[in-house]
Design brief:
It is built from 13 helices and 13 strands. By secondary structure, it is an alpha+beta fold. The protein folds into four domains: 131 residues, Arc Repressor Mutant, subunit A (Orthogonal Bundle), CATH 1.10.10.10; 51 residues, no CATH class; 89 residues, SH3 type barrels (Roll), CATH 2.30.30; 73 residues, no CATH class. Strands 8-7-6-5-9 form a five-stranded antiparallel sheet. Strands 11-12-10-13 form a four-stranded antiparallel sheet. It has a two-stranded antiparallel ribbon with strand order 1-2. Helix 1 packs across helix 3, helix 2 packs across helix 3 and helix 4 packs across helix 6. The longest helix has 18 residues. It starts with a helix and ends with a helix.
């Protein structure tokens, strides 16, 4: 959240005479430290000349007069101009930059910059015979249940764990806009929720930073050219793709697309894409991504033909696999687990990392395990 958004939110709450909060409560609400909130409050009091004071009887900050003039008699601070623009566009939609400039005593160029600042802060302003807010910019009262609001917050926390600067920030702004339409007495304490709901940090590149570009290509139905560096590639290689869908597998994002260079459907890990270029070429592939295609595993790297892998497992391992499926194709029946994969040999490391199993088929995987076992005996044997 930008400083401008925080100050606008503080001002809106105080001028609407909402229940007072102290600096700690505001800091929790904005997910910043107390010193940052104190600086914002000082700006309202000293620069905007707002009648702000701390009221110990209610344990929070409030305006002594919620009808004080927004425009200072002296030189207008930037933040005052922005607040005035918001109120004027709401009250008289359709005013031009020149009319707004005359009303605020500035020049057109300053208004253009101020409008850009408001758009950056999340205000949906558009120009249609003058500046206006989108009709749904300020929502009517919304009756969200506590469970619905909590679900939104959990979704935001999950996105923050993957990409706090882009996805997380956009999700927070969207939630704040939505919650502005929830009645004050039903609005959750975001600071308290933030402390109560934690999501572990992701320790690998999930590719979430490219989701915006990929979604744009999907929504516009345009081909993209990427430089992609696979696991076995020494350097990135150009690929021309028809994007078909996005999916997330174990917190890592993938693009399902038709690869014109390889003439087939492929899954591309977004974190391995080094460069993207949107083209004006419409997507030629009409196929839609099926749920079975929304998966990725190193066992599927090579080839399109699927082979059946059968493994006999112990009772304890069967229970563990039922809670932690190793692959989207996993089927568990009693002590027998089966997988449908393209490259059974790639399962060798996973199989050798577990205890209490026996590979029944295919023979190529059994042979690979036997070779690994001989190497281990040779390396760690007693020399007899």
């Amino acid at each position: 959240m930008t400083r401008l958004t925080r100050i606008l939110t503080l001002h809106r709450s105080l001028i609407n005479d909402e229940p007072p909060k102290d600096a700690k409560e505001w800091a929790d609400h904005f997910a910043v430290n107390v010193r940052t909130v104190l600086r914002d409050l000082a700006f309202l009091r000293d620069e905007m000349k707002a009648p702000l004071r701390y009221d110990p009887s209610v344990g929070g900050y409030r305006y002594e007069d919620t009808k004080f003039p927004l425009m200072a008699e002296v030189k207008q601070p930037k933040w005052t101009r922005l607040l005035t623009l918001i109120h004027r566009i709401c009250a008289e939609p359709g005013q031009t930059a020149n009319q707004l400039a005359e009303a605020t005593g500035r020049v057109d160029r300053t208004i253009f910059r101020d409008i850009a600042e408001l758009e950056k802060a999340g205000f949906p302003i558009y120009n249609d015979n003058g500046y206006r807010f989108a009709t749904d910019a300020f929502l009517p009262a919304i009756n969200l249940t506590p469970s619905e609001m909590f679900s939104l917050f959990v979704a935001v926390r999950l996105l923050e764990s993957q990409d706090e600067e882009m996805l997380g920030a956009e999700a927070r702004r969207a939630m704040e806009k939505l919650l502005r339409g929830v009645r004050e007495n039903r609005r959750p304490d975001l600071g308290a929720l933030r402390d109560a709901v934690q999501v572990a940090e992701v320790y690998e590149d999930t590719g979430a930073s490219l989701l915006g570009e990929m979604q744009s290509a999907l929504s516009q139905g345009r081909q993209v050219i990427i430089d992609y560096q696979g696991m076995k590639d020494e350097k990135p290689e150009p690929r021309q793709l028809d994007p078909l869908g996005l999916f997330c597998f174990r917190q890592v994002w993938y693009l399902h697309a038709h690869d014109h260079n390889r003439n087939g459907l492929r899954n591309f890990r977004l974190s391995r894409i080094r460069r993207t270029q949107m083209t004006d070429i419409p997507v030629k592939m009409e196929a839609k991504m099926e749920i079975g295609q929304a998966s990725y595993h190193k066992w599927d790297v090579e080839g399109d033909e699927k082979k059946t892998v059968e493994i006999k497992v112990s009772d304890s391992l069967a229970r563990w696999l039922s809670e932690n499926p190793a692959h989207p194709s996993q089927e568990l029946q009693g002590n027998l687990v089966t997988y449908q994969v393209s490259n059974p040999k790639a399962m060798t490391r996973w199989v050798t990392s577990l205890y209490g199993l026996e590979v029944l088929k295919p023979q190529e995987l059994r042979d690979e395990l036997a070779a690994v076992s001989r190497e281990l005996i040779e390396l760690y044997g007693d020399g007899e």
